[in-house]
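Final report, Chapter 2: Outcomes

The project's central promise was a pipeline that accepts a single protein chain and returns its three-dimensional structure in a standardized token representation, suitable for archiving and comparison. That pipeline is now operational. To close this chapter, we reproduce one record exactly as it appears in the project archive, with the input sequence first and the structure output second.
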Amino acid sequence: MRRVALIVLAMSVVDLAAQRPNIQNGRVETRAATAIAREIAAVGTSASPVWVAWSVPMVPGDRNLCSTWSDGNTFVRGETLERTDGSRPTPFAPASGPVRLEGGTSLVVLARVVDGRLERLRSIGDDCPVDAGGATINWLTGVTPAESVKYLDGLTRADALNVSATRRLAEAAVSALALHQDPSALPVLDRLSSTATADSTLRRQAASGLAAHRGTQGFDRVVALIKNERGRDLRRSFVGALAQSPDEKATAVLLEIARTDADASVRGEAAMRYVRRAGASALPTALAMLDKEPDDDVKRRVVSGIGSLPEPVAAPALIQLAKTHPSVVVRKDAVSALGRFSDPQARALLEELLR
């Protein structure tokens, strides 16, 4: 019986270590908890900042949720919680214990609390080392993904968006929600993105989270947002969100919008995003768009997309456009785009134009 208990204890320690990042320069207090808001209220009775943190499974993919710093000689990867003087971060010591093969699969939410008030929210991967800056981190165990979603959703309420500090918390909460693997995050993001009375900034952010992190379901929802939204600026931002989707169908949808949408600003956004996403293979289609598109602003966006392609592909196309295209707008923008390339022919054309 004692051997079984020791095995269970050892497994619990390993499980906790697998979810908690390497924390240095601070004190870690482990607290069993089920309600995040209650724990934040309980630990934040001091004027000195304390941190409350918990971990949940993260959507799959190479997220690399960690800050980096480099001066050309030293590279530091990690999160410093309390550094405010602008000094260079201190390199992190290697984590003790065995190498974790599944690092970066859990999302760690870090909440800074002062006087019982939530002041800041950060999200990192569990493989990101943390310098606590001398602060105490209260590590919560027992928090379910559904509880985490519920708590973060509460930070997005409409009355919290009137103050800049709480607005920042709401935006950080939406970013964290998008990375929760738990299915309960999906309807929250769906509601935040599609409710016409919701805050436009949060709508854009939720749409980006849906497209980038929520698979086929998120892709379908953003396509529906583009179709049903009436506001021009929001539709254009939803097109930008769609371009972040890993779904292969996004490329074809962007092209269809670029060819057929009634709004020129939306067509232009879709055209640029399509060229950037499809890469070199998009060049023939992009050149055909320039010949058929009647709107000058859309043409400029297409040229911008071509200019973002790799230099060996973009430079010859832009040179040809600058020399021969009948549109003055296209020629001028092609010349402007060529300015960032080192291609000898591009340089020669620019020098010729400057004579």
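Archive annotation: The longest strand covers residues 106-114.
This record, like all others produced under the grant, will remain available to the consortium after the project formally closes.
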